[in-house]
Structure formats: structure tokens, C-alpha cells
Amino acid sequence: MYKKEFEIRWSDIDANGHLANSAYTNFMSHTRMAFFIEHGFSIQKLAEFGVGPIVFYEHTYYYKESFIGKPITVTLGLSGLSEDGKFFKFEHNFYNHKGEHLASSDMLGSWIDLKSRKLMVLPEPLIELSDKFPRTKEFKTLTKSDTRIEGKRPKDLI
User: Fold this and answer.
1) Residue 62 pLDDT > 80, yes or no?
2) For residue 150, is pLDDT > 90?
3) Distance between CA atoms of 57 and 119, rounded to whole angstroms?
4) Which of 58, 73, 56, 49 is CA-nearest to residue 130?
5) Residue 138 contacts residue 106 (beta carbons within 8 Å)
6) How far apart are CA 98 and CA 120, in angstroms?
7) Which of 92, 78, 77, 86 is CA-nearest to residue 126?
8) I want to staple 102 with a disulfide (CB 3.0 to 4.6 A). Which of 4, 31, 94, 158 is the partner?
């Protein structure tokens, strides 16, 4: 399990005086990018292959409040990966300085070809690196149908 610690800043709290939901999203994103960099997916490496990560969704569940002046720890584990590396799913958990569980979030993502702007299969050297990611106990091999499991589809305004 990957861990990253954060200090809650003034700009991270909302009108209720606790950690804002947007801050949870920012901490997860920062944790993921640090994780990718530490596991060989540096900005330079991604640029070499013309690939970038994208988010399909983040579902966050809040359990306890967190306040300014107290550190929080964000964990990350790989809970799903397609065989071709095209789709990945991370589980994030938030803990306060006492180790109490504050929130959890499931995030589903993919890779985009930065030139064509279309989803892409992960290049083989990056698949080899992703095979070494720490996995959750609930890890599963993802398929394309797992990306639409919620049944949501785009509906244009027009």
C-alpha cells in the first residue's frame, strides 16, 4: 500500500471549518501522481510514449471530519487493471493522525493518446511497470464493461 501524508492548509477547509470535498480530490490526485512518478511513470516517460492519465470517476465516501492543523494520510492501492493496461482502478483511503478512517474513494481511469485524444492501450514497457503496482485484496482484472458499470451514459443538451 502506498502512503502520502499531507498538512491541512487554510485553503483546504470549507465554510464549516473542516476539510473541503475539493481538497479530498486534490489530495487523491497528488497522491496518484506521486505514486506514478515513484513507480516509473514520470512526466518524461509518459511524454516519451505520448500518453496521459485520465479520470472517469471518483466516488468518495466520508466517515469523519478532518480539521486544519492536523496531518492526514492518504493511501493508494490498485484495485483493478485491464490485461492491456488500458483501464485502471485505485482505492484511496484517508486517515487522521490517530489512524482513524476519515474517508474512502474509488477512482476509475484510463490512458489517453495525447495526439489523437483517444483512449489507448498502455505501451508494453509501461504495462510491465504497472504489473508491479501494489494491489488491494479486492483486486480484479478489469474489462471495458467495468467502465460503464454505473449505467451512466452521456446525454447531450440538444
Assistant:
1) yes
2) no
3) 15
4) 49
5) no
6) 41
7) 86
8) 94
Grid-cell match 489507448, residue found: 120
Give the residue-averaged pLDDT of 1-11: 95
Nearest residue to 116 via CA among 61, 44, 63, 49 = 49
Residue 73 backbone phi and psi in degrees, to 5 = -115, 130
Return the pLDDT at 145.
86
Enter the DSSP assignment of 42.
Answer: -
Helix (H, G, I), strand (E, B) or coil at 138: strand
The most distant pair of C-alpha atoms in the chain lies apart, rounded to whole Å, by 51
Compute the average pLDDT of residues 123-140. Answer: 93
**DSSP secondary structure string for all residues of 96-136:** -TT--EEEEEEEEEEEEETTT-SB-PPPHHHHHHHTTS-EE
Q: What are the boundaries of each domain within the chain?
A: 2-147
The domain over range 2-147 is classified in CATH as 3.10.129.10: yes
Q: Quick count: other Cβ atoms within 10 Å of Cβ 75?
A: 19
